[in-house]
Amino acid sequence: MLSQLSNYDRSNHIIKVGFDMDGVLLYNPARLLRPLISQLKKKDVCIHRKELEFYVPQTRWEEIIWELFHKSSIFVAPGLDQIQQYREQGLLDPYLITGRFAHLRKDFEKWQRKLNTAEVFNQALMNDQDEQPHLFKERKIKELGLEYFIEDNWDIVHYLSERLSGQCQIFWVTNIFDKKIDYPHKFRSLKQALAALPLKILK
What we know:
Number of strands: 8
Distance between the termini: 17 Å
Number of helices: 8
Largest sheet: 6 strands, parallel
Shape: globular
CATH architecture: 3-Layer(aba) Sandwich
CATH class: Alpha Beta
CATH topology: Rossmann fold
Number of domains: 1
Oligomer: single chain
């Protein structure tokens, strides 16, 4: 599972790493449905749109459905304390980057308090302008000069890994239903992904 990271070894300086929120920093059982949704999308069974195009809620009722879906992010994933520790030790330069749309601002601010983002992350960034999430994350990764980004959505992982090859290594936090997908930087949890970073303390 752990691949060679020699080309990305930055152990002599602080490593800049971005973290998605839902499914990475927060445990979200609903992420188990993503492979099914992706297959339906590819086959145009019930979702008729481009391969990588996320639907942006247009009405208040749709926003409520999105809000209920994101309520399935129920608790903080193990590993948050390690991120804070590595930052305090000068090993990690962490950023929270979520593709959540603007109408989820209130819930995002609630999780900011629970995650103690002011102490754990250099910045906590949200998709306030309702950009396509993969484009928003690509833009922020480039602007911040991130060397690693940890994401749970396979479509976004695939997109970013192709677009940012040689610039940023994309780690994928996956689940049991994605086991057939071959990807070199594939992990079952945030803690596993953190353990694969080339930090001095882990060598």
